[in-house]
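1st attempt posting a full record on here, be nice pls
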Amino acid sequence: MTTMTDTSNAARFREFKMPDVGEGLTEAEILKWYVQPGDTVTDGQVVCEVETAKAAVELPIPFDGVVHELRFPEGTTVDVGQVIIAVDVAPGSGDAAPAPAAVPAPVAKPEPEPEPEAPKGRQPVLVGYGVAETSTKRRARKGAAVAVPAAAAAIQGEMNGHGSVAVQGSRPLAKPPVRKLAKDLGIDLATVVPTGEGGIITRADVHAAATPVPAQAPVEVEATPFPAPEAPAPVVAGARETRVPVKGVRKAIAQAMVDSAFTAPHVTEFVTVDVTRTMKLVAELKEDKDMAGVRVNPLLIIAKALLVAIRRNPDVNSTWDEANQEIVRKHYVNLGIAAATPRGLIVPNIKDAHDKTLPELAAALGELVSTAREGRTSPAAMAGGTVTITNVGVFGVDTGTPILNPGESAILAVGAIKLQPWVHKGKVKPRQVTTLALSFDHRLVDGELGSKVLADVAAILEQPKRLITWA
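the predicted structure (as C-alpha cells):
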C-alpha cells in the first residue's frame, strides 16, 4: 500500500477500487492490465479486464491522470472495494511522489495474518464504482508494502531458518484454492517462497514448503481428504492428468446447474419433425432484401416458432417463487440462447423478444452470438431470462435432456438437422429431419401444457406458414 507523505501530496493521488460489475458478486479476477505505471489515462479509458462469476468485463477509470501504481498482478482474485490502481491526478505539480513503503527485514517467526472479519453491514457487491460510504471498510495495515513490488522483493530477500521468506505486514499473493491448500497443510503463506509470475504463490510452492527439511525433525501434517504428494511434480509433456482451478464463469455454471437439477423436478419430452419446408424458407429469406445485413439460419425460425408457441400457451412462461409459494407468470419473453464460449457455457437473453419482428429478432440473435464469442457478454445480458433455447445440433448431436436455466420453467434443445428417409405424402422420400427436446419444471408445467408447447413448435417447423396463420 502506498504511504502518503502529507495532506497536500495525498490529494494528488486517487485510488480506483474494484467496482461492482455484476449482480450479487463480491470478487473478480484481474485478467489483463492495459496500462502500466507512468502511462497517462483519461476519464472513461479502459485500464483492465476482469472476470467475474458471470462474464469478462472491461473496467474504465473514472478520472484523468498518470498511473502511479498497479496494486495487483494479472491472475489475482480481488474483493470488491479493494484498491487496484493508484493514479496521480496532478502530475507535474512539483510535489514529490509518495515512495512505496520499504519491505521490512525478515523476522524469525512471523505470525500469520488474520483474515478480515466479514462486515456486519451490507457486503460490497460487483454496481457502480466501489461500495457505499456506509459499508464497512478495512483499515490500511501499518507498514504495508506495495503489493506488486513487494512480491518481487520478497523472492530476493533474505531467507529465514526454514529457507523461506518472511515479509512482515504484506499479505502474500495466492489464489483461493492455494490458500485453502496451505490452510489444510498447516502452512503459513508468509513463510512460503513464491515462484509464480508476479510473485504469486503456487500449489507447488505450498507443497515444497510442506516437505520436511532433512536437517530438521519430520513434521507431522494432519491428514486431509485429498492428501498432497510428498514433493511437487512439475507438469511435463505426456503427464497423466492436468488440474484446472474451478473459478469464474465455470464455477458459477456448475453451482447453477446443481441448484437447478436438485431444486426443480425436470421432465423432458421429445418429438422428431420434418423441417424440409423450414429449410426452404431459410434459403428464401437469405435472398430477401428485407433481411439484408442480418444472419438468417434455422435457429432464427426455431426461435420465432417458440415465441409463437409461448403466445398460444402463455402459462409456460412462468417461474416458481419458493419463498412466497407462488407461480409468477411473465407477460414478456426474455429469450435465452445458450452459447458455448472459451470460459464455459453462458446464457445471454434477448430482452422482450416477443415484441420483435423477424428482422429485429435476426439482428438481436446475431449481436448476441458475436458478443458471446468475443467474451464480452455483460452480466445484465444474462439476467432476467424466462425461456431458453440450446442448439446442440451444431455439434452433430441428435438431441439431449437439457437442464433448466435457474429461475426459468422451460428449455428447448434443438438437434442436428439431417437428411433422412421419411414418409411424405404416402411415399418414402429423403427429407430434412430434426429432433426437439423440451425440458420443463413439473411444479408449474404439467404434461399437457409441456406437450402443447412442444407440439406447437414442431407444427410450425413442419409448416412455417403457421407463423402467419397463428400470429
